[in-house]
Amino acid sequence: MILAKRLLSGAALAMAATAAGAQPAAPAPGFAVAGTGFVKDGEPYQVISGEIHYVRIPRAYWRDRLRKAKAMGLNTITTYAFWNVHEPRPGVYDFSGQNDIAAFIRDAQAEGLDVILRPGPYVCAEWELGGYPSWLLKDRKLVLRSTDPAYTAAVERWIVRLGQEVKPLLLANGGPIVAVQLENEYGAFGDDKAYLRGLEATYRRAGLADGVLFTSNQASDLAKGSLPQLPSVVNFGSGGAANAVAKLEAYRPGGLRMVGEYWAGWFDKWGEDHHETDGHKEAEEMRFMLQRGYSISLYMVHGGTTFGWMNGADSHTGTDYHPDTTSYDYDAQIDEAGNPRYKYALIAKAIAEVTGKPAAPTPAPTVAVTFPVSPIRRSASLWDNLPDPVRARLPLTFEELDQNYGYVLYRVALPAGGGGTLTLKGMHSYAQVYVDRKLAGTLDRRLGQETVTLPARAGVATLDVLVENTGRVNYSHAIRTEQTGLTGAVTLDGKTLEDWRMYRLPMDDPSSLRFTAAPCVGPCFYEAEMTVDQPGDTYLDVRGLHKGQLWLGSHNLGRFWSIGPVHTLYTPAPWLQRGVNRIIAFDVTGDPSDRLTTVDAPVFGKVTTTREAQ
To answer: How far apart are CA 409 and CA 91, in angstroms?
Structure first.
């Protein structure tokens, strides 16, 4: 309110000066909250934003996606900063190439867009461990999202380092960043105001609180996740606008009217249905909120792809587990390949009607193409490509092995004996169990499986447990216990198995594998070739594979899993070259039937129009 009074006083002085014959002063530069809205350069301003994540879009396409978002009527882009991609190991930072967040923000500015930055450190985002680097979990005593000194010290180092990249891009320094979000939906997690105040102090030391700083929460969590001195905004999905804005207005009657996330779509999880939401309803609610004076950020305006190993997993109780797919299409207005879907024009029309600015023509779609893919040329058995092992009395987690993603093969000797029950307590998150390289069973955390019945053994045998990190949970208190691999006791009929060898398989450089022409069955790498005459966007159809990971040259395109609901991997033109392109697929249950083709559109399984409760 003090700011609003100052603005009114400034306007009155300007009017008085004009009446006296003097030239009115130029509007004060800057961006601020005034009452229930924003002012920019002294004039009322309505933020109309959309979320885009730089790490989910090939860098060559950043400007294209930003341009299409602006053409829809947006004036701002919102993005998270993803700690785990920028600090893969403690004190080792990467802001290059695909991870150059400052370049993405400058690209937004070049397209005439403002930016809202959400540094976290927790971001959720259906992203691995909610954006936290997994090495934080190596210390099992460290408590994420708390005032634990070990945690806050790591956060301080990260936020200060991030500030070196983005502080020059704040509006006050000539950049496009008009606002910064403190934490992320903290009210859905806890209500420790000391934690939020400490994080606010960290932001200030990093120079990230020099402009508008705000908190963002779901409607039922506003009181828990807000600070009295900061503006509070509300997050919700389509169909919930009237209820959510009423709760925000009741919580802060004279406060900022803004929707920090309007979920105009939803994400997919392995083994579940593909989500599609009602674009007509979303356009209707956009119109309602804009007419009511709300600033809005669409989540997502363009989802893109969670390339590589970086998908997260949903969990509400800590015992349920729902890993997210590689595709982050989100049924957004701009689809995974950057093409406007029907929602785009509907929402553009709603924005134009309220703002009075004519809608730009809907951009033409990019036509995807297909390319021939060879049969499997060569293969490499996992058993023949193991590194030197790490030895320990009991199994070590991925984090204790200093490994973030991929697989670990755990090996131990079994005594002779009859069949028994093998228990892998706290197995995270998918395992195949072998006795003398013969598959004895599969365990899937999604299904709550932790036991396998082993066969009888006439002599000493070798037990191998191949464990995949299928994505650490990114939501709920489960994040605090998301160590990956064999995280608890491993017993055979109640007796602890000891003296383990562990083979680290991060699979960050498949080019070093030893391929042969010999056929391969079981956990195998397969090599094929795609011949490209002229690079263009395409989709690799993975219905001829089972479960695993796929690389195009040096690019890790992501996971495939025959359970769906997504049966294609988006393959962007900038990552293709003319001529022969090498494809490597790791299939945990490979066999001679494995094959790949390309298609010109994504392939989804069963569709649902229902969004799960968040």
So the answer is: 28
